[in-house]
Amino acid sequence: VRRGISANALKLLAMAAMLLDHLWATVVSGNLWMTCVGRLAFPIFAFQIAEGFFRTSDCKKYLRRLLLFALISEIPFNLVMGGSWLFPFHQNVLWTLALGLWAVMALDKARRSGNRRDVVAAVLTVTAALGLSVIGFTDYGLAGVLTVLLFYVARDFRGAWLCRLAGMVLINCVLIQGQTLPALWDFPIQGFAVLALIPIGLYDGRQGRGGKVMKWLGYWFYPVHLAVLGLLWLAG
Predict the structure, then answer these.
(1) Is the pLDDT of residue 17 over 80?
(2) 1 exposed, middle or buried (CB, 10 Å; 0-12, 13-18, 19+)?
(3) pLDDT, position 211
(4) Res 175: pLDDT
(5) What's the predicted TM-score (pTM) here?
(6) Residue 5, beta-bridge partner list
């Protein structure tokens, strides 16, 4: 049996990359390499949302848990992004991941049933999820929801890796506009997100060690580290 990277190892890698990115954005500014590494975090989390959909025993419970931690994370996120308890112009990434999961649930129901009503409902749900990510100013927005959908669609078929690669390049190097690195050409920093396909490709289907500790660490790490960084940033 091929041994690669477990789900929990992927989660730790994404958390470390995210921490570097958020440190760069708050208390350790000027170290551009940190945000370059940080670009790997979101695609891994998006992949795990899509993968978690296939592995969870209760998708609705999974979605409710994401929504709960999105609420818990909102004030810490506001501290980091806006320097205040209230910042309505940007919402945390868990809302984006929840919208992606909601869209995947609707698509999968339509795919399995083939019922016209479910197909219409899936189209409306995906449209609503994409729209809410835009008007709600969620982190990664429309591109983030599309990334979750990409990992749902590009799974377990010949050439899936090529579909993932093309989708990731399109989303991160074309759709997302942002800071670039001066070189022979202006390379988009967000383009480093495509490298997340390397550890994702090494995923071997195992959950890995840690059990429930790792499960809840994955949820609580996001709001707790944001709160700590936000308070340190304000204190400094």
Answers:
(1) yes
(2) exposed
(3) 85
(4) 92
(5) 0.94
(6) 203
Angle at 89 between CA 180 and CA 169, to 5 degrees: 35
Cα four-point dihedral sign 78, 76, 44, 23 = positive
Share of the chain above pLDDT 90, in %: 76
Query: Does residue 85 sit in helix, strand or coil?
Result: coil
Name the 3-class secondary structure at 187: strand
pLDDT the model gives residue 210? 87
146: Cβ–Cβ under 8 A, 6 or more apart, which residues? 130, 167, 171, 175
Contact 108, 53 (CB under 8 A): yes
DSSP per-residue codes, 102-128: HHHHHHHHHHHH--HHHHHHHHHHHHH
Burial class (CB in 10 A: 0-12, 13-18, 19+), 206: middle
What backbone phi and psi angles, to 5 degrees, belong to 57? -90, -15
Can you tell me the distance from the alpha carbon of 181 to that of 235, in angstroms, rounded to the nearest whole number?
A: 31
